[in-house]
Amino acid sequence: MQKRFFSYVLPAMLAFAFTGLYTIVDGFFVGQNIGDVGLAGINIAFPIVALIQAVGCGIGMGGAIQISVNKGRGSKDLEDKTFGNTLTLLLLAAVIMSLFVYVLNYHILVLLGAEGKVLITASKYLSVIALGSIFQLFACGFTPLLRNYDQSILAMAAMICGFVTNIILDWLFVSVLKWGVGGAAWATIIGQIMTVIPCLGFLFKRCRSISIAGFKLSKNVVKNIIRIGLSPFGLTMSPYLVMILINKWAVLYGGETAVAAYAVISYVTSIIFLLLQGVSDGSQPLISLCLGSGNIQEALQIRKLAYVFSLIIALLTGAGILLLSHFIPVLFGASEAVAAMTEKSLPIFVSGFLFVAFCRVTTSYFYATQKNTSAYIMVYGEPILLAILLTAVLPNLLKLQGVWLSAVTAQFILAIIGLILIMREKKLQL
């Protein structure tokens, strides 16, 4: 079982890590060539980019879970219908999101708290991203489908292909041609195109076995995809809802310096969160197959492996970040003031890694086994708890330090809630 577990989880971890590295690479080149304003601009804009990715992930994962359950049950016709409907939904969502972001990006950024030079910079970045958002959505939506068809290696290779392209083009567009944040955005879009291309061969081959009627949207199939997909959508989007909230209060209590410091912190912590999500989502196809075939005990064993592996990753990466905390801000070209604030604040965020590890696996288990109410509580609990803590408690007492502590406190409370839900489920099984 362990061999099969790692054959799914390790490629998923790498695929998620490369997804997160897109933004870090943008941040590195923008920070080195533009400075704090560029870093702050991309950080303010990134929740919108994350929304595009979350929609793709939600639809793709919602469809993929249904596909795995139907495979476990031997329901070939329903499996094919779900696959076709998932692709149709991804296409419709891509068109809608492209238009939405392109037309409204400036107004959305104002609502997110952007102003002055940061607003101008963020708008330039997001305007370009909107033009290619269809590829971002496809890249995020295709990979769960590939993993659930035993194509984890292909999904990982596609991400690596896009990531390498992004690095090369970031260097060319930002450092050499001096296109600024727009160049970073173009590098990201072209990188996502290169992620989609390797996936197309398998998807076209799979489509040939499905009739045209399989792509016509079915009310029940779409309902199930969306019902399940709301959890992975939220799990992908939740860190960026947190980012929006922290950015708003960081501006209030620490100004541009605090926003730039949080940009550096979020670049680093987002990679760790994505690695942890790779563990949880990598184990999802196995858990869903076990559910479909009625093998609950094996699903619980897979969950146990995911818990142990996630906690080990959280401990090791946290220790690594603390050891390198002095060098991390320099990597992004941060000013002395931003670097000092980043180094001082990083340990607060690292202290929440263990809670995040537990919550990620717990949430993924709930939506993989179609326990949607518990999954919704875990997914949307963190931003709700954080909003309460930020508006009513810690910043009023501790100012900027309270803003940082609110994030970790919300993660701790959510881990307690997750533990209660797991214990409740165990009692019901007995």
UniProtKB/TrEMBL annotation:
The keyword Transmembrane helix applies. The chain crosses the membrane at residues 5-24, 44-65, 86-105, 125-146, 153-177, 183-204, 225-246, 258-276, 305-328, 348-368, 375-397, 403-423. It is a multi-pass membrane protein. The keyword Ribonucleoprotein does not apply. GO terms for cellular component: plasma membrane. One of its GO terms (molecular function) is antiporter activity. This is MATE family efflux transporter. It comes from the Bacteria. It is found in: Cell membrane. Keywords: Cell membrane, Membrane, Transmembrane, Transmembrane helix, Transport.
